[in-house]
Amino acid sequence: MIRGMRLQMRATSAWLPLTSLLVACEGGQAQDANASIEVGPSDLPREVPSSLTGTSWRLIGYDSYESGSERGKPAPGETHKITFEPGGRLVVQLACNRGVGGWKASQREPDRGGLEISPLDISRTRCAGAGMERIQDDLEYVGSYVIKADGELVLNLRADSGNLIWKRAK
Question: Diameter of the chain by CA atoms?
Fold first, then answer.
């Protein structure tokens, strides 16, 4: 049995140098193993149009992982709303304040992808009892998104620092 294994190992190891030689040579020329390969746009999977374009969402909750697992939600009567307009314009309502910013999504699947939100230009009226500052800061820290099967939009904050959970606005 051991002798049979040695023969099998010898046969396999005899093919390794020959395989390496065949891989290293192409058309009689040696190839650099560290050479970079040119990849054009046609070689990459095509991005799909963002499923966020033209949608509006109302904040229903947020998760914070700063101090354990804290789940929060807007105060009764407090409304936070975002609209992803075509062309990369983001319109926001954070409690009694309104503003605009930019957004850019990159995705290869219809219901998830990377998301960048630029700093928001927003009014600064004091809204009674509203947590507007936190939501504004969190929006600018979004790194990706998922539209769940139940229709909720989850904006994932970078560095696993939490999520903003939204429901489609009517």
Answer: 85
Dist CA 2 CA 47 (whole Å): 54
Please report, for the chain, the start and end positions of each structural domain, with discontinuous segments joined by +. Answer: 2-35, 55-168
Phi and psi torsions of 113, nearest 5°: 170, -175
pLDDT at 12: 44
Which CATH number is 55-168 given?
2.40.128.270
155 and 137 Cβ atoms separated by less than 8 Å: no
What is the model's pLDDT at position 13?
44
**Closest alpha carbon to 91 in 62, 114, 123, 68:** 123
- What's the pLDDT band for 92 if we cut at 50, 70, 90? very high
Taking the model in full, what pTM does it have?
0.68
